[in-house]
Amino acid sequence: GENVEQHPSTLSVQEGDSAVIKCTYSDSASNYFPWYKQELGKRPQLIIDIRSNVGEKKDQRIAVTLNKTAKHFSLHITETQPEDSAVYFCAASATQAGTALIFGKGTTLSVSS
Amino acid sequence: DAGVTQSPTHLIKTRGQQVTLRCSPKSGHDTVSWYQQALGQGPQFIFQYYEEEERQRGNFPDRFSGHQFPNYSSELNVNALLLGDSALYLCASSLGPRGYEQYFGPGTRLTVT
Predict the structure, then answer these.
(1) DSSP B43
(2) B3, B102 in Cβ contact below 8 A?
(3) Least CB-CB distance to A105: which of B42, B92, B107?
(4) B70-84: pLDDT as tens digits
(5) Over the stretch A36-50, which tens digit does the pLDDT of each residue have?
(6) pLDDT of residue A96
(7) Cis peptide bond upstream of A8, omega within 30
(8) pLDDT (tens digit, 9 = 90+) per residue, B11-53?
């Protein structure tokens, strides 16, 4: 089955810096890659996603890139703010078989002002 | 627009007991997925329901079972509780059998003593 690896597990940046989180997946049939943000004690919140027919997607300060050949995808956050501090999870899904999301273990992002 | 809701918020059970958790999907959604999130880990897929049938199942024992009702709401049942079942149980809803975007509820925190 699918396996998703996520790095780094923790990331500390200064306010205004950029942050990059990387994930790799194992199943070449995976075709949907969402990113979730989870603040302490709250539900995971979908912040951006990408499908396998797209190489990059942007939404204001966040962007996701996908390299299908290498089976990796990344989340980029620019001009980080203290409110970006949270745990970020990547996930992969092979929607032909169903839409189960397989998650990475998460990255704890801390943005200090 | 009502988001995904779950009940109860917290639950404490004793080893060997049985528990039922409930989920109402986001308005307009008809597919419900359940995930288990252990402390400090990413959510793990348990199963998914669509048209009142289990469509996909993760690597969880038969002690975990579910149901979907005609109004698309869903229940997760866990029998013979183990200490290791202590976790946050998340429900996510999506639209249709190939719905990409999954939106999570706030979760039910289950503690088994």
Answers:
(1) -
(2) no
(3) B42
(4) 999 999 999 999 999
(5) 999 999 999 999 999
(6) 65
(7) yes
(8) 999 999 999 999 999 999 999 999 999 999 999 999 999 999 9
- Angstroms from B81 CA to nearest CA on chain A: 23
Residues of B in contact with A97 (CB under 8 A): 56
Q: Give me the pLDDT at residue A97, please.
A: 64
Nearest Cα to Cα of residue A71 among A26, A106, A36? A26
Among the partner-chain residues B44, B48, B107, the one whose CB lies closest to the CB of A99 is B48
With contact defined as beta carbons under 8 Å apart, do B89 and B34 qualify? yes
A·B CB contacts under 8 A: 66
Token pair 């809803």 is at which residue?
B93
DSSP at B14: -
The residue to which tokens 């996909």 are assigned: B56
CB-CB under 8 Å, B104 with A99:
no
**Alpha helices, DSSP H only, in B33-84?**
none
